[in-house]
Amino acid sequence: MVKPRVFIDGEAGTTGLQIYSRLAQCEGVTVVSIDPAKRKDVAERARLIDTVDVAILCLPDAAAREVVDLVSSPTVKILDASTAHRTHPNWTYGFPELAPGQRDAIAKAYRVSNPGCYPTGFLAAIKPLVASGIIPASFPVTINAISGYSGGGRKLMEAYAGYQDESEPDYPYGVYGLTFGHKHVQEMHQYSGLAHAPLFLPAVGAFEQGMLVQVPLPLWTLDHPPTGQQVWEVLADYYGSEPFIQVNGLGDAEALRDRKFLDTKTANGTNQVQLFVFANDDTHEVLVAARLDNLGKGASGAAVQNMNIMLGLPEHMGLG
Ligand SMILES: NC(=O)C1=CN([C@@H]2O[C@H](COP(=O)(O)OP(=O)(O)OC[C@H]3O[C@@H](n4cnc5c(N)ncnc54)[C@H](OP(=O)(O)O)[C@@H]3O)[C@@H](O)[C@H]2O)C=CC1
Ligand SMILES: CC(=O)N[C@@H](CCC(=O)OP(=O)(O)O)C(=O)O
């Protein structure tokens, strides 16, 4: 059988390298590489894309848009890991677990956008709650999230490079996005089913990889607040058979591990979103949290999963 040919545009970057190393171990596809001297030559990249079955774009947004405009093959499927096409009406959102039918839509699509890392955690947590009506679409939602610095790509990784050797980094924790216009907000709003955009407060920590996305729900604001168990059941039912979304037990003490806090790294190296629900039914406070590897299910793992679906390959291929 002829193996599908895949080109990773931006193969040398943080996300591209991780996709390459996952696919290099796979028998199922042939990875086509560009001459390194031409890796920023847009005409050569478009020419190569026209020759493959799937092209995965791991580029800055502008470079992704530019090359897509030059592609002419009617058969090539494109998977864009950048933010450029995530809310575009002609592109299919590459989150197979988001809703019934999404996986089939990805399988049929010629243009698929890979979700952002923060939206992956947020949408995994909120979408079932809004879709089921257990929280109303009008609920004012806030998100507190922290990412490792690899989320900022090569430039942020270089900026943090010296920290490994310091016992006390200058910036162990930094909140950003303080003008509330972060590039992920539109995507989080569009696919959540919420009437209002969530208020998003991202932070970056002095660790390389991993993320935690927290959605605190002050349910006392509702006339009939659901219990923590009811919130948990909605999530557990929604993702019951999904291999890459794991719903941990309600108030799972194991999840907190020895130190009694939710850490940011336990999902690293996996393609998992790990969901947690913590609740106090007396005060009607609930926290839904998602832990994931920003470079795994938040980027390269999701890209490989989407590529597999787009090519009709086993969905687990290359995902460990
Ligand atoms: N890091 C993360 O956690 C995630 C990143 N993404 C997205 O993936 C994309 C890539 O991000 P990331 O891998 O982190 O970024 P990096 O900066 O690590 O890598 C980007 C790569 O693209 C190359 N590049 C830049 N401009 C051009 C161009 N005009 N033509 C061809 N190649 C070019 C860069 O080369 P050079 O370095 O030489 O300029 C580099 O190799 C971005 O859109 C990002 O938003 C998505 C999910 C998560
Ligand atoms: C820590 C950090 O800087 N994170 C990046 C998000 C990671 C990323 O690039 O997100 P995409 O998935 O949209 O590509 C940011 O906040 O812009």
From TrEMBL:
The UniProt catalytic activity note for this protein reads: N-acetyl-L-glutamate 5-semialdehyde + phosphate + NADP(+) = N-acetyl-L-glutamyl 5-phosphate + NADPH + H(+)
Where in the sequence is the active site?
A: C117
Q: Which UniProt keywords apply?
A: Amino-acid biosynthesis, Arginine biosynthesis, Cytoplasm, NADP, Oxidoreductase
User: A single Gene Ontology molecular function, please?
Assistant: N-acetyl-gamma-glutamyl-phosphate reductase activity
User: What Gene3D superfamilies does the record point to?
Assistant: Dihydrodipicolinate Reductase, domain 2, NAD(P)-binding Rossmann-like Domain
Q: What does this protein do?
A: Catalyzes the NADPH-dependent reduction of N-acetyl-5-glutamyl phosphate to yield N-acetyl-L-glutamate 5-semialdehyde.
State what protein this is by name: N-acetyl-gamma-glutamyl-phosphate reductase
This protein's species is Leptothoe spongobia TAU-MAC 1115
Taxonomic classification, please?
A: Bacteria, Bacillati, Cyanobacteriota, Cyanophyceae, Nodosilineales
